[in-house]
Amino acid sequence: MDSLEPKCTPLKNSYDACFNLWFEKYLTLTANYESGNDRKRVLARSKEQYEKDCGLKWLQYHSCLNEALDSRQLKPLLEAARNEDPLPEPSKLEKSTRSN
User: Where is the composition biased (Basic and acidic residues) (predicted)?
Assistant: First the structure.
C-alpha cells in the first residue's frame, strides 16, 4: 500500500518490511514464554532489537508523513476527529477486552 504522500512511499515500504520481520520474530519468541522474568527479558531484548533495526526507519517515515499532513493542512482535521471520537486509552482498552 502506498503512503498518503508518494515521496514517503519508499520510507513506508522500508519501515513496513522491517516491522513485519521484527514482529514475526517477536511472535515466535514470546510464544515460548508465557510469564515470568524470562518473558520480561525477552520482551526487553525484543524492544531493543526493534529500536536498533527499525527505529530510524520509523522516524524517517513519520517525519515525511508529518510534512505531508502539514502541507495538505490535514492536521486540524485529524485533531478534530480525535476530539470528536477519541481512541480509548490502552489501560481502558485492556480492561474492556478482559471483561468480554
Answer: 81-100
Reduced to 3 states (helix: H, G, I; strand: E, B; else coil), residue 89 is coil
Radius of gyration of the chain (CA): 17
Structurally, the chain folds into a number of domains equal to 1
Q: What's the Cα-to-Cα distance from 8 to each of 4, 14, 29, 57, 62, rounded to whole Å?
A: 8, 10, 31, 11, 9
Q: Residues 71-94: pLDDT tens digits?
A: 999 999 999 999 999 988 777 656
**Domain annotation covers residue 16:** yes
Residue 1 lies in a domain: no
What one-letter code names the amino acid at 3?
A: S
Which cell numbers hold the place of 53? 533495526
Question: Tell me, what amino acid is at 5?
Answer: E
pTM for this one? 0.76
Residues in the chain: 100
